[in-house]
Amino acid sequence: MARLVEIRNLAVTFDGQPALRGVDLDIAPGEAVGLVGESGCGKSVTWLAALGLLPAKARVTGSVRLGGAELLGAPAATLDRVRGGRVAMIFQDPASSLNPVHRIGRQIAEALALHRGITGATARAEAKRLLDQVGIPDAARRLDAYPHELSGGQNQRVMIAIALAGRPELLVADEPTTALDVTIQAQILELLAALRRELGMALVLISHDLGVVAESCERVCVMYAGRIVEEAPVARLFAAPTHPYTQGLLGALPPLHGPRRPLSAIPGGVPEPWAMPPGCAFAPRCPHAAEACAVTLPAVVVLPGGHRAACLRALPGFGSDERAAA
Amino acid sequence: MLRFLFFRLLRAAVTIVMVVSFAFVVLRLSGDPAQIIMGADAPPEAVDAFRAAWGLDQPLWRQYFHYFGAILSGDLGRSMRDGRDAILLVVERIPATLALTLPALAIKLGLGIPAGVYAALHRNSWADRLVMLLAVAGFTVPSFVLGLLLVLLFAVQLGWLPSGGQESWRHGILPMLTLGIGGAAVLARFTRSAMLEVLGQPYIRTASAKGVPWRAVVWGHALPNAAIPTVTIVGFMVGSLIAGAVVVESVFSWPGVGRLLVVAVANRDLAVVQCVLLLVAATMVTANLVVDLLYGLLDPRLRNQPRAAGAH
């Protein structure tokens, strides 16, 4: 399968503190991939780094290839064409992600002018079409509205319209529903799924909500402390989680069927960036941690069915009964 | 909108009345104009005659109502020293003051805003540190000290420029610089923090994420937002065009409104002092009003709720 995006060994440090510690991730054209993990695990940083959107103090190393062309260290003009043109990104808080002093129409038209060279009345017509497409009622009148005159859900639809303006091959949605009401969340996720089918673009959905990812994605990557610790097709990840962190996340979800049980929380907290353990970052909280876990950084183990996990217990012959049972 | 304007104008009028009333009372309580103008050894009959002639022998409340009655009919009183209309005395000094304060305002805007923006865009660079060092120095040094320092350097040591007076345009350079540098320093600091605040906002990241080149992000997205808080301080500077040069005019013997005020206060020339204060209050209040209206223009969020804009 030809790859749209290839991320290799991507690492980011802020003032010497590691935020991302070697991420490998591939995105195929048209694919929907979920990126889950707790706040601060590096989900957003991965894509902000890939698109060169981190502040100057961030040190980024590794490789990010889009259609075979390297993005890290690419000239600003190249990145400006990629951003919004080939890879678009939408963010968590739609109300503050739109410029408060510019009208909606102008903010969409700006992207149209940059990536498709459309201006004037044509741009306005296209902006209206985009607002229609993302389901904003009375689009023609809304073009002249300011962000503060719209609701959070409508603003997120506007963000999506801006993202679609450049006809991107990949849309990165960074917690697109976290700041919205539950009913609106479902609408936005449905809209994203429908647009992806319609336009054939790839989607990366960043979320801390496993449920959101399960509904909208084909493949899930679980991140912990700046690394991807497990990656699998959605159904397989939920059926047979291999990494103890993933198992912990799933154990913390309330079951919809069967008898009620107390939710299990993962004890302890995420290690601070300046006190990263030398071995597996999850070892201090892991119920199955062995001595080796504290000293060896676990390599990624490739399992059948497109399943990968960065855990020593996933190695054949490590004596993991649970894995055999799974 | 009209309702908003009406209430703002009403508030402006109340402010002016309060300033003028306060000045009226304080000036009359703090010294006897008759005694000061006639001299300490003037015969008592002459002093009494002076008082009677200017109405100073009346009770304070009667003087006050008489004064306001006159203002409302357009009479701002006459100078007790030479009997000329106070308003004429003040108005003929305005061009001299504006000749200093307008170029100084240009220095403040032209130096302060670009320096602040540059410092914010290059945060923590040596240029940022230098701008901030100069800005802190610029606004912590009082204008009379800065003025004297400039005189020492450019007039006394180097002999390039005159130290005071108004004979040629060269005489204006040092007072302009003194006024301009302090204001530019304030504005640079203010602009920098406004800009930093805006650059950290999510919509700036959105603009970059949709492929807007950085220069256009700064000009098209960051500056219009950073302008909103900056307008407040610029409005204050515009409001002090008339009266902002009292100290500097005195240091450089520049015959403007500020120096007239100092002399008139020393002489207890009541009508002149009150006339200057009325003018100062009026410019300040007008500038504030313009700032409030500008807010609505710059920030669409304030257009629908003008009362929030009026809360500043």
Automatic annotation (TrEMBL), chain A:
Report the membrane topology from the UniProt record: Peripheral membrane protein
Q: Which domain of life is it from?
A: Bacteria
Q: What is its main location?
A: membrane
What biological-process terms (Gene Ontology) are attached?
peptide transport; transmembrane transport
Keyword field: ATP-binding, Cell membrane, Membrane, Nucleotide-binding, Transport
GO terms for cellular component: plasma membrane
Q: What subcellular compartments does it reside in?
A: Cell inner membrane
A Pfam family (short name) is: oligo_HPY
MF annotations from Gene Ontology: ATP binding; ATP hydrolysis activity
Which CDD domains does the UniProt entry name for this protein? ABC_NikE_OppD_transporters
Record has Amino-acid biosynthesis as a keyword:
no
Task: Return the InterPro entries for the record.
Answer: AAA+_ATPase, ABC_Ni/Peptide_Import, ABC_transporter-like_ATP-bd, Oligopep_ABC_C, P-loop_NTPase
The cross-references to Gene3D superfamilies, in alphabetical order and at most eight, read:
P-loop containing nucleotide triphosphate hydrolases (3.40.50.300)
- Residue ranges occupied by any ABC transporter domain in the UniProt entry: 5-250
Question: Which PANTHER family does this entry report, sorted A to Z?
Answer: DIPEPTIDE TRANSPORT ATP-BINDING PROTEIN DPPD (PTHR43297:SF2), OLIGOPEPTIDE TRANSPORT ATP-BINDING PROTEIN APPD (PTHR43297)
What family classification does the UniProt entry report for this protein?
Answer: Belongs to the ABC transporter superfamily.
Return the NCBIfam families for the record. Answer: oligo_HPY
- Which protein are we looking at? ABC transporter ATP-binding protein
This chain's source organism reads Roseicella aquatilis
The opening ranks of the lineage are: Bacteria, Pseudomonadati, Pseudomonadota, Alphaproteobacteria, Acetobacterales
Automatic annotation (TrEMBL), chain B:
Sorted keywords for this record are: Cell membrane, Membrane, Transmembrane, Transmembrane helix, Transport
- Location(s) in or outside the cell: Cell membrane
Give a yes or no for keyword ATP-binding in this entry: no
Supply the Pfam families for this chain: BPD_transp_1 (PF00528), BPD_transp_1_N (PF19300)
Where is it predominantly found? membrane
Q: Which PROSITE patterns does its entry note?
A: ABC_TM1
* Record membrane topology: Multi-pass membrane protein
InterPro entries cross-referenced by the UniProt entry? BPD_transp_1_N, MetI-like, MetI-like_sf
Entry GO terms, CC: plasma membrane
Task: List, alphabetically, the SUPFAM superfamilies matched.
Answer: MetI-like (SSF161098)
Q: Residue limits of the ABC transmembrane type-1 domain?
A: 94-295
Q: Which CDD domains match?
A: TM_PBP2
| GO MF annotation, one | dipeptide transmembrane transporter activity
Membrane-crossing residue ranges in chain numbering: 12-31, 98-121, 133-160, 172-190, 271-298
Q: Does the record's keyword annotation contain Transport?
A: yes
PANTHER family assigned: DIPEPTIDE TRANSPORT SYSTEM PERMEASE PROTEIN DPPB-RELATED
Q: Which family does it belong to?
A: Belongs to the binding-protein-dependent transport system permease family.
Name listed for the protein in its UniProt record: ABC transporter permease
Task: Give the organism, scientific name.
Answer: Roseicella aquatilis
